[in-house]
Design goal:
The protein is α/β, with parallel strands linked by helices. Helices cover 38% and strands 20% of the residues. It has 11 helices and 14 strands. It has an 8-stranded parallel beta barrel with strand order 3-4-7-8-9-10-13-14, surrounded by 5 helices. Strand 5 and strand 6 form a beta hairpin. Helix 5 packs parallel to helix 6, helix 6 packs parallel to helix 7 and helix 9 packs across helix 11. The protein is globular and about 50 Å long. The two termini are 25 Å apart. It binds flavin mononucleotide. The site of flavin mononucleotide (FMN) has 26 residues, from strand 4, strand 6 and helix 10. Flavin mononucleotide (FMN) binds next to strand 4, strand 6 and helix 10.
Length: 331
Amino acid sequence: MTRAIARFYQSFYDHVLSRLPEPAAVSLGQRVLRAVPFDRLGVFHLEDPRLAISLGGIRLANPLILAAMYYDAGLLRRAMGLGFGAVTAKSITVRPRPGHPLPNLVRVRSAAGPGLVNCNGFQNPGLPVFRRAISGLAHRVPLIASVAGESVDDYLALVEGLAPCADLVEVNISSPNTALVYAWNTQPRALRSLLEAARRACPKPLIVKLSPDFADANEREIIPAALEAGIAIVNYGNTRRVDDARLSQGTGGLSGPELFPATLANLERTRARFGTALEIIATGGVDAPDKAIALLRAGATAVSYFTGFVTRGPILAREILEALLAASPRI
Ligand SMILES: Cc1cc2nc3c(=O)[nH]c(=O)nc-3n(C[C@H](O)[C@H](O)[C@H](O)COP(=O)(O)O)c2cc1C
């Protein structure tokens, strides 16, 4: 059954979604996800106590996490029933943001497979509206709120505002396509103060989402600063900054399978350097069960993905979980 659904989705992606202009494909994909109660179909879940993990002391039924992209409460509710152990909401800013103008998402295809480049520009409804929208959301699985700001005060307002509605909070310092966030990577002292202030203000487990563009700084300064501030979970990582003349900003964040070799290498180095002091969510390029298994074998606490959800469909989580169970004594 799992394989039949995977084949059906692949055909839908290859013949319909990937041939539509990107904005039409996004709109169709989200409309289908909203309209069809996939989350009520048993085929997308796989419950087995052997899959459970702990992340920041929170129990996840399995180690798969949907990476940050959706802020709409209806889509988050659906995603919570699609086999993930936790779901991350899109990064929220204090005030609403319209995002960058179109084109802000384009497809790329490399030998590794289909990917995306986006300069979404943090399109989101802002803190008060988002908080109201998710306040009634049942947490069928843990919800990770993601926050993005320009100043320590921004992050404090966001962390304080969203912690009550979330199970964990992710501090995004890594999205590459606005004046927000990315610059923290080049200001280690300011970043250290930000992480300390966020830790003091947040009663929930905190995650720092790292950029693959700053591998040296991550190891030398950023992860040590997080650990010293009392933040022991990193999500490694976000998209990689690339130029793409088709985008309205001429530059954006690359996601999808081209990222995978760096995701694995960053994880291996980080695990070797920081040992078990750190919990690591490995993100970037996971679009097949063998990639998720490789990351878990290399020491990832959990694995997250977004582009694979689009290119391989909601059945990918179930495919990975089946493969994990089949490989389970060896992971
Ligand atoms: C359209 C789009 C929007 C995204 N928005 C966010 C965001 O708001 N916050 C964030 O931390 N990451 C965001 N990401 C990055 C993903 O969460 C993920 O880290 C990245 O895509 C790499 O994983 P993947 O190769 O599995 O997609 C976005 C990615 C895409 C494609």
